[in-house]
């Protein structure tokens, strides 16, 4: 596989694993990129288009586009064909954003779910990554990153759950987990 | 060990391990907290007080205090006593911020280093965490989180390096890693 060359070059980063911090780490990268004057853009495959968690409010203020592409909890949906269609339409939008070169950093949050369900095609995702403009960074998050994606990516971190507040009966805290 | 009770309660989160994304995930939490109107504050034990990476520039714009408490690469320093003193003075400032209740979220970035070096005392850190006001969230990052801290924390994630761009000879990219 060929990769973009040059001193400033876009990286492909993967945050995977069953622990907390995958989406959050992607948000941190967005903040860092903003501080350097980069233009980040975020697509969230498993969030509803009208999601308004803490990060959405903050990013709106910062002028960072963040788009929910799903219908909320798609994996529990009784209308899987609708979920699949939403994911495919969302992927087309995200792929265009990566290919356009208009964005220095594109976050594909929770893209591993639609990949695992076969709603979007891994080979197509890899092709969009390979063909992207040299300077474009792409971050992909979600449990169960496919082997071929791990192989292609520049940096891969597995967020491993050591322990989680939920397991001790503590409900999700606003501002920390949503 | 007693923990604060009540519906809204501060969590202790630990991001540890040798992978990328620990500090970045903490920054993402800051962004999320901001979106909920919380007041976050960041202490960075291994960053120089005049550090100006991407995150510093972005956080300054957002009005989030971020303080470097170290002298840069302290672990390579030839004046370890000076590094130890800086860490201890920094810890006193951070401990006051946690205890004050003036901040909803306090990030103790890379605190595992001074803990490992014995520059600051683990029991003292645990005591400050235990005694903190009920609503205060604290995030601690760095490799090699001590067992007693993992035990006390509500949520612990190990960021495991699967692969890293450095290893393939790709230099750190501005806006992504600093």
Concise account of the structure shown:
Chain A has a single domain, classed as 3-Layer(aba) Sandwich (Rossmann fold), CATH 3.40.50.300. Chain A has six helices and six strands; from the N terminus they run E-H-E-H-E-H-E-H-H-E-H-E. Chain A has helices spanning 22-35, 54-62, 80-100, 112-116, 122-130, 147-152, and strands at residues 12-16, 40-48, 66-70, 105-109, 137-141, 155-163.
- What's the shape of chain A? globular
**Overall SS class of chain A:** alpha/beta
Order of strands, main sheet of chain A, comes to 3-2-4-5-1-6
The overall pLDDT of chain A, averaged over residues, is: 90
Order of helices and strands of chain A: EHEHEHEHHEHE
Specify the helix fraction band of chain A.
Answer: 25-40%
- N- to C-terminal distance of chain A: 38 Å
* Overall CATH class of chain A: Alpha Beta
- Count the domains of chain A: 1
Task: Give the SSE layout.
Two copies of one chain form a homodimer.
Chain A: E1 12-16, H1 22-35, E2 40-48, H2 54-62, E3 66-70, H3 80-100, E4 105-109, H4 112-116, H5 122-130, E5 137-141, H6 147-152, E6 155-163
Parallel strand pairs in A: 1-5, 1-6, 2-3, 2-4, 4-5
Describe the structure.
2 copies of one chain form a homodimer. Helix content of chain A is 36%, strand content 21%. The first copy, chain A, has 178 residues and is an alpha/beta fold. Chain A has a single domain, classed as 3-Layer(aba) Sandwich (Rossmann fold), CATH 3.40.50.300. In chain A, strands 3-2-4-5-1-6 form a 6-stranded parallel beta sheet, sandwiched between helices. In chain A, β2, α2 (54-62) and β3 (66-70) form a beta-alpha-beta unit. The longest helix of chain A has 21 residues, at 80-100. Chain A is globular and about 45 Å long. Residues 1-6 of chain A have low confidence and may be disordered. At the A-B interface, β1, α1, α2 and β6 of A face β1, α1, α2 and β6 of B.
């Amino acid at each position: 596989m060929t990769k973009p060359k040059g001193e400033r070059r876009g990286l492909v980063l993967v945050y995977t694993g069953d622990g907390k911090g995958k989406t959050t780490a992607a948000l941190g990268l967005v903040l860092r990129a903003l501080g350097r004057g980069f233009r980040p853009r975020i697509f969230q495959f498993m969030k509803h288009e009208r999601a308004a968690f803490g990060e959405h409010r903050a990013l709106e203020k910062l002028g960072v586009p963040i788009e929910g592409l799903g219908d909320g909890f798609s994996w529990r949906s009784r209308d899987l064909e609708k979920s699949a269609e939403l994911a495919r339409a969302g992927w087309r939008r995200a792929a265009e954003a990566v290919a356009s070169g208009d964005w220095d950093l594109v976050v594909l949050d929770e893209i591993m779910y639609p990949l695992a369900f076969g709603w979007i095609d891994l080979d197509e995702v890899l092709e969009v990554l390979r063909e992207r403009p040299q300077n474009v960074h792409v971050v992909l998050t979600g449990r169960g990153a496919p082997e071929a994606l791990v192989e292609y990516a520049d940096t891969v971190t597995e967020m491993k759950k050591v322990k989680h507040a939920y397991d001790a009966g503590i409900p999700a805290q606003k501002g920390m987990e949503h």
